[in-house]
Amino acid sequence: MSGAGPDTATLLLLVLFGLAAGVGITAVGPGGVLATVGLFVLTDLSPAQVAGTAIVTHVATGLLGTAAYVRSGELREPRTRRTAWVLAGAAVLGTPLGVLANTLVSGRAFGLLLGAFVALVGGLVWYRERRAAPTGAAHHPSSWVAAPLGFGVAVASGVFGVGGPMLTVPLLVALRMPVLAALAVAQVQSVVIATAGTLGYVAHGAVDWPLAALVGVPELAGVLIGWRIARALPSRTLKAGLVVVLFALAPYLALYGG
Questions:
Q1: Cβ neighbours of residue 237 closer than 8 Å, sequence gap 6 or more
Q2: Is the pTM of this model over 0.90?
């Protein structure tokens, strides 16, 4: 794009990316990365500005997603709440490190690394789904597992400006946590990651507020749509959709890494 700013078509595409991101956040988990993808592909922002602008949008979507899953009951279950708090606590430590690491990432590395990681997570979910646990075998990870998982996710989320569900949901599903419970705890973690990440990127002057609003408002609408989709579709369908989304995003990100 030119220095004059986005044209009308680009602005419309960013709105659509935001809407799709919101649907994906609460329906399958990794959808929030679409905000990062849209800003990365459609604008001339630096990696820090892309991540900073994208992560701002996940504050409100995380809050709305958390409220939705409280209402539907997933976050009222004690084991689910415990996992949510452990992930959120780990995010307080991990996210600032991710923001700092972003300053070392070039535009090419930003796309290539994110694409590679998305493919890795998609492969993990696919592998575990092919060896799915028998009915009744789903469980919640211990705090000793959830804490390092949450820390690692927070670091990566801070680097790439994603809210957390993109990585947390497939990893928890791979650990045989119920899909809806994984989606619910990821929303809580996303609030912490997005808040800490926003503060970090604001300190670096790396947030484009008009673009954050342009993407973030339709993203909020998408969160409510995605929550309804998640509760209407069976678990196996959600997992299949998760794998398809991740594998579709991986080459797309790598292609625009240069």
A1: none
A2: no
